[in-house]
């Protein structure tokens, strides 16, 4: 009799504990999982036209959540994009441009407030796994910018001795735990698995308190690697295999949230840092019909998939075609969690109204396309995009590479300016500036205001409100 009573007591304790846990998760602010994928193009998902491989978990997330069809990465290159995402600012406002490497003496400034630092003030556990790329010296690493944990690589996975072109330029690729190097030239076939498993363990370890997990996958940036469990699974080849494994990662994260009873109190965000690196041909993704790709301010460089899921808050199967940007992630998270916005000026706007079902809300009206050190190459307002004449990359007219070797591209092509109606011409093929001089004038005024604020190398404007990047203390 005593044994039966003990069993009954154990069962009741478990049931009441589960009820109490579920009640507590509803009372506390939402968890946030932010997944940033490297070089994934707009056309790389099943729902956006991928061919010869499937992405069932990405697609199911979209079916049960929200897909932003007009999402812009802050800048079409690695470091700058991440600076914009984590600070809510145009990258050039906080001193970032391009992609830093092992020779850089710069990184994220200690005075800038990251998403992690905002959430720490609300009692969140925070972690970053995967690729960082905001400075590799200790003072720039995630654990000094709001993250309790870090396990990953300090910059891009091609910055190692096996680079296909610059073989003698890069040192061994470091693998870092917290702020210590724990290995060099790690097995990149395990990257997607390792960083997914670390994220899952972090979620499980912190399920009884609010948490923020930032999973920045190094793939499908070249060089491409995939674990044995997905090797040869795609009819498209290695690139398809890699996307299938990333899709697996999304599925594992979502499954963990459900199994831990956390999914209804977790905002899950998945997006990409920039468009596909088209120079690499069969080792690159698809821009989905947009013009050009990574490293350009045409739509193929900036327009990437963005999916968000939050059961009970975000309506299932929603598509929002309002213009949004990577800088908007920080203020969205801040409003959703009750965190205070950074003291210094940011450029993002909250998308919480969109998340709650107001799909026609347009908190963002304008986007500035900056590239290179500080060149304002284009500006968008509503559905109009005005491109200014500028030197820049073009892949057009060049055969792409294959097998991991890059093809040729013109890195200093003189692009002509033009006005494009993105509603009718998302491929930016038809210049209509002569037909709409009033639109050109209106967008030029917006550009002039931006130049006063942020500067513009193309017109020799310094800008009044740019802030210094962090620098190594020498």
Automatic annotation (TrEMBL):
Sequence ranges assigned to domain Sulfatase N-terminal in this UniProt record: 30-338
Region of interest (Disordered), residue spans: 451-474
Keyword list, A-Z: Hydrolase
SUPFAM superfamilies membership: Alkaline phosphatase-like (SSF53649)
Molecular function (Gene Ontology), one example: arylsulfatase activity
Coiled coil, from the record: none
Keyword Lipid metabolism: no
Pfam families from the UniProt entry: Sulfatase (PF00884), Sulfatase_C (PF14707)
Family: Belongs to the sulfatase family.
Protein name in UniProt: Arylsulfatase
């Amino acid at each position: 009799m005593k044994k039966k009573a003990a069993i009954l007591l154990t069962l009741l304790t478990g049931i009441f504990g589960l009820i109490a846990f579920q009640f507590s998760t509803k009372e506390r602010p939402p968890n946030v999982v932010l997944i940033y994928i490297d070089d994934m193009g707009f056309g790389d998902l099943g729902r956006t036209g991928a061919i010869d491989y499937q992405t069932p978990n990405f697609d199911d997330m979209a079916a049960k959540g929200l897909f932003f069809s007009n999402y812009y990465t802050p800048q079409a290159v690695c470091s700058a994009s991440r600076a914009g995402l984590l600070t809510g600012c145009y990258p050039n406002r906080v001193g970032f441009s391009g992609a830093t490497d092992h020779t850089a003496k710069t990184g994220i400034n200690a005075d800038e407030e990251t998403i992690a630092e905002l959430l720490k003030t609300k009692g969140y556990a925070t972690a970053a796994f995967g690729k960082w790329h905001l400075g590799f010296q200790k003072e720039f690493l995630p654990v000094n910018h709001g993250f309790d944990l870090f396990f990953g690589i300090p910059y891009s996975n091609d910055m190692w001795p096996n680079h296909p072109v610059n073989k003698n330029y890069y040192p061994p690729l470091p693998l870092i735990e917290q702020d210590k190097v724990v290995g060099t030239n790690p097995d990149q076939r395990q990257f997607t698995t390792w960083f997914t498993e670390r994220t899952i363990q972090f979620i499980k370890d912190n399920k009884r308190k609010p948490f923020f997990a930032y999973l920045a996958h190094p793939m499908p940036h070249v060089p491409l690697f995939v674990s044995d469990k997905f090797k040869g699974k795609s009819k498209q080849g290695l690139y398809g295999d890699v996307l299938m494994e990333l899709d697996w990662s999304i599925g594992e994260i979502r499954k963990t949230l459900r199994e831990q009873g956390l999914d209804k109190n977790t905002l899950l965000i998945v997006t990409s840092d920039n468009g596909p690196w088209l120079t690499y041909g069969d080792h690159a993704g698809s821009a989905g019909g947009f013009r050009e790709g990574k490293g350009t301010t045409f739509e193929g460089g900036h327009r990437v998939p963005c999916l968000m899921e939050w059961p009970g808050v975000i309506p299932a199967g929603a598509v929002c075609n309002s213009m949004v940007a990577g800088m908007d992630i920080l203020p969205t998270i801040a409003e959703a969690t009750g965190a205070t916005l950074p003291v210094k000026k940011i450029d993002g706007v909250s998308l919480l109204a969109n998340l709650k079902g107001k799909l026609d809300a347009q908190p963002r009206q304008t986007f500035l396309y900056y590239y290179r050190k500080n060149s304002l190459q284009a500006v968008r307002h509503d559905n109009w995009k005005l491109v200014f004449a500028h030197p820049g990359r073009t892949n057009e007219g060049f055969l792409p590479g294959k097998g991991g070797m890059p093809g040729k591209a013109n890195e200093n092509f003189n692009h002509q300016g033009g006005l494009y109606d993105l509603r009718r011409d998302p491929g930016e093929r038809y210049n209509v500036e002569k037909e709409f001089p009033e639109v050109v004038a209106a967008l030029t005024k917006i550009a002039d205001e931006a130049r006063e604020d942020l500067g513009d190398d193309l017109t020799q404007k310094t800008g009044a409100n740019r802030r210094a990047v962090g620098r190594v203390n020498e």
